[in-house]
Amino acid sequence: SARPRRARQLTVRRSAALVRHITRVDPENNGYKYLYLYTRHRMTVSNLRNILKKLKVDNSRILDVHFPDRQVAALLVHNEYAPVFEEQMAQKGVSLNKDFDPLDPAIIRDPAMQDATLEERQEKAGVVHKSHLLAALNFIRDPVKISVARSFRRQNWITDEDLTAVLETSTVNTLTNTFPSSTLIFITETWLLSPTRYLTSWTQHHTYATPVTNTTRGRNGIALLIHPECRYPVNILPSTSPYLLSCQIADLLIHCTYLPPSLTNTEVETFLADLPLLTHSSQFNTLICGDFNARHTQLLGDRRTNASGRILRRWITEERLTCWNQQLAFGKPTFVAHRIHRQAEETSILDLFLSTCPLQDARMNISYDVDLTSDHKPVHLSFSLTLPPPPPASDILVSSGALAS
């Protein structure tokens, strides 16, 4: 039986995190800056973050850490958090390095530049500084990434071209640009907290993430993007589950789900048992998609089977559902992770499409070459709807997983 979960205590830090989401930001402080710390010796980013954690610093407020010079660490924070961090450090007897200039030509220590002119060294310092900024933007999640990039542009740290490139390569823009003919795009594990919105011309709906203690992000979350020229109205159906976003388009009911691996077997069984396969007499087929975190060798061609996979297969059999991964992409992983410390590639099949009735002209493609800064790969399912008036083929895309680390 499932162990009852304790009610989460509202700590001071968790309360502060919640308040931040409903507090107006002073326009003068609406930006980001780097703070600089002295370091006595060489260390890794993990080393420094562990030190900060032991000093009771909220690491989620530190968006980037890098080392721009010997014995100097750079920490990217929101302007509002900067005085809080500085006070924390002062209480521990730690002074910030307020004299450091990342554009100082003196920090260029490359032997190949020893005979360079001052102007050449200044130019090189600017190039190195910008490379650190662009590297940071690669690891910051949407939509915070876009906010940070715009702050960098206001400070003239990056160019208009750099900003445009960041906007075009954001996760949502990557999806809409890669799959421009898709009618619907579902994204799971968004981490987005209300009322955050993606910067896109597509209509969007959210099952927002739940707040996480001591962080500015959420847990879980599902988003639906609707093509601006979608010919059918898309009706969003109410749900109280944090793991579900449901809608109806034409006569098709669609459930998108994200079942986190932390759920107990009982919770998974209860969720599936309570999932309605029809909610209205106008519905003639139901599509269930998303990240189930369920693995099964016989059902999916995965390399192993877990408890959620056994539960899912039993439910599919009992409800006589069709698993389209089994029919169209058996054995093809939707999760591909490169584990450097193991020097190995870890794969699994987690992102699935199921339906209660057959789909006409169904085709599935897993896009391994699309970079979403996630180990999950976009899974694209296309099929035809045959209701009057004749609509175009409706393509549905599921992109699952943590979109950035």
From TrEMBL:
Residues 253-379 form the Endonuclease/exonuclease/phosphatase domain. One of its GO terms (molecular function) is endonuclease activity. Keywords: Endonuclease, Exonuclease, Hydrolase, Nuclease. It holds the Pfam family Exo_endo_phos_2. This is Endonuclease/exonuclease/phosphatase.
